Amino acid sequence: MSLADKAKNAMQDAKGKVKESTGKAKGDEELEAEGKGDQAEASFKNAGEKAKDAIDDVKDGFKS
């Protein structure tokens, strides 16, 4: 996974946490849900990037 992708996903996760906590504090269920969604999307992207890395590792193993 590239460093830029890791940074983007971390920022999206952090943004989601802020939205979620702000939504909880304000009693805004929609904002809270949006924050949880942002966090879930960041986690999904991280999983995809990790899968790509695993495939690349397998390919590199065959090249050796």
Architecture blueprint of SSEs:
Layout: H1 3-26, H2 29-63
Helix pairs in contact: 1-2
Can you offer a commentary on this structure?
With 64 residues, the protein is mainly α. The chain has one domain (3-63). It contains two helices and no strands. Helix 1 (3-26) runs antiparallel to helix 2. The longest helix is centred in the last third of the chain and has 35 residues, at 29-63. The two termini are 21 Å apart.
Q: Overall mean pLDDT score? A: 92
* Biggest beta sheet attributes: none
| Share of residues in helices | over 70%
Please count the helical segments: 2
The low-confidence parts are none
Shape: rod-shaped
Task: Indicate the structural class.
Answer: mainly alpha
Count of structural domains: 1
Q: What is the string of SSEs from the N terminus onward?
A: HH
Beta fraction of the residues?
under 5%
- Return Rg in Å: 16 Å
Task: State the separation between the terminal residues, measured CA to CA.
Answer: 21 Å
